[in-house]
Predict the 3D structure of the following.
Amino acid sequence: MSETILKLDKVTKVYPNGTVANRDINMEFEKGEIHSVVGENGAGKSTLMKMIFGIEKPSSGTITYKGEETHFNSSMDAIHVGIGMVHQHFMLIPSFSIVDNIILGEEPTKGVFIDTKEAAKRCQELSDKYDFELDVTAKVSTLSVAKRQKVEILKTLYRNAELIILDEPTSVLTPQETEKLFDQLRFFKEQGHTIIFISHKLEEVKQISDKISVIRNGVSKGTYLNSELTMEQLTNLIIGRDLDNDMDEYKTHEDFHNEKALEVKGLHMERNGKPVLNNVSFAVKCGEILGVAGVEGNGQQELVKCITGLEETKYTGEIYICGKTVGDMNIRGRRDIGMAYIPEDRMVDGVAGNLPISDNLISTYYTREDINGKVFMDSKAIAKVSDNLIKTFAVKTKNADTTVNSLSGGNVQKVVVAREYNTNSKFMIAEQPTHGIDIGSAEFVHHKLIEMRNAGAGILLVSADLNEVVDLSDRIIVMFNGKIAGYFPDANNVNESDLGMYMLGAKRQSEEEIGGALND
Amino acid sequence: MTENKNKASLKSVLSISNPKVFDAVKMMISILIALAITFVVLCLVSSNPVNAMITILTGPLSKTRYIGAVIESFIPYAFAGLAAGVLFSAGAFNLGAEGIFILSGAVVTAIAITPVTTSPVLHPILCFLGAMIFGGVLMILPSFLKAKFGTNEMVVSLMLNSIYAGIAAYVVRTFLGTLKRGGNSSKDYLATAKIPYLYQPLRITACFFLLIAVTIILYLVMKKSRLGYQIRLAGSNPRFAEYSGISAFKLAISTAAIAGVLSGMGAATCLLTQTTFYTPSQSLVGIGFSGMLLSMLGRNNPIGIVIAAFMIKYLEQGTAVLYFVDTSVPSEIVAIVEGIIIMLISSQHFLRKFRERRLLKEGLEEHAE
């Protein structure tokens, strides 16, 4: 016997910039099941969840929870009826203890004061009941990412959530931590909770789900029993075609005479007295992709900032781009000697959203001769360059005058990659180059990176997506705690769970082995 | 086939989902609503609201000297608007134009009362140059402090407004003043410093053409030059500008300098055409601040700003004409029009629902294709 807990009926959402995020979505969730909602990034999963959780309001259609039509004004309303959500980016206050974070907004009181004892007791009981192994008096800032996620889940349980939405919960976890999370989810299910699991990692979805709903392009492609669906069918449903995962066949192997696009020697940086980069040395050769793997927050961001010249904290060590020492050059100087950079957060650093695509396609080389006249910029040449790039990179837009804001995430990223590609640089930093974009665009970006590599550019690929690092790279370094913990000279022969051990700091190589990152 | 495509692209160009079209429609509707509300106010205060409305709208055209007054008075405001427009486009909230106007007014006065030359051409030019250089250098201060030390330029520039006004008052009283007039005013300008009318009835002077030239140059700079491109980028997303290798420091300094030069021009224009002496507490007060409103009205576009300045001064002249026949209508009524238009066009939500519905429809149609 099954009981429908949540029902979506013809739910449509249109954003003010004209994006139709969801259209006529019908979906049913039953009590006590683990129900995955999958789709490419940008397909509309997050928007749908935000509507269920009351953060966004549907433009039309109805959402029925436990037989009653919902009209949430905010997520508070959703929480009150028993819906909980664990966001991809955690909503915790680092300087508070776990207890304080959990009870925030629902504090047990004794007179006018917060009953701290009672609060701690209840939180600890809850943590023990679900086997979370947390000391609830610890400060959140001292916790690992996986533990912070547990706190987020506890937060929903404390509020008596029956329906828990997990938005890309595994994106920040190592394979080992993911396993553990799944055990917990199965336990929740036994306890009668309903789990909505959002992910674009299909292996995981197949592993954990009872049912799978697919969204493509904002439209529902149906709900299926996990047991009735093969991986191929699922992939087809999501992208409408077969996915081509093996990048090696696109790689060519020309000899670029061991020329180095980037050399980093003994990079060291401290923040608040703690080393965030600790004696980091490696090199990126022309015609190769060097992957940097690691759990987010282990020094990768700082490393990229030091190399690009955007870091404001003083660091020691030497950096050479295309053989030239960068000293205290700013980013302009570094770009001029051959650096290109795809930034991690495209909307914050990579584009000016309310300017036209054409403006965004030339920003890093706007002084170049071919797009400038004697006095003014040559608007005809700019139009030609942008039209060409839009065509080559298959950016989905009406024309080059459209503002970047009205593009989808994948197309915005294509604009960023197209611009950096067009700098013809010998050295490229690709920081999370496919983070949060659809599979089609991601594949496209990957092909372009390999194309640049084949043409002799050295690419430093920094990504939290382990599959991406393994699939694209020629060599891999793993960062842990600001140090290089492991170096893998042949990316084709690495074991992902082995990489995971290095990412978690459970293993580390000797200095000699790591030295290969610079000297190989 | 191509005809079909042309039709489709024409449709998309004229469609409300095109942000430019949407902005234009929004502006027009805002003006209409503002005028409608003005009419309601007129109904409340005037015994003959229809006539009053007609007088406000057409009054300035009834006599050449009325339209001449508009032409003369709007030019300094247009310069102030252009100055604010440059700063706002670059994302700088430097509100210092007011102080720059008042202080460079003192500079203009110092040169205009001194017989530096006997040439009636050279003398005004020297006055302009003095004001422009002074304005340019002084305007840099808040932007420099922000770029170098991270101070809040809005606070600094507002404070400097008071300081500059104080300095101007001191300088005029101590060095440039005369006992002939009550209050703190300067000596009379020398005849050589005054800018003559080229066409007396419409009060057209060389300043009119200067404004046109400056507007066109500024428009080209903003739209076509590398500097304009940098300003657009930094104004839209400063972090992106930095990422692209544009020096925030240089840009802050150069835009502030341009704004200061424009403010200096505005001050010189006002003093050398409309007055014969300088009173720091009166002559130029409020022009710099009005410039910011005009910049908002003109959407930071140089041509839009000049049109906005003309429009506001035109309406003010209209109420002045109305005042001759109907004293029940206060001239402040123009502020209502101004305020409502600015409120509506700067509102994110005004007409948004309407646009969303259209976008939804178009989005669905596109899907269907």
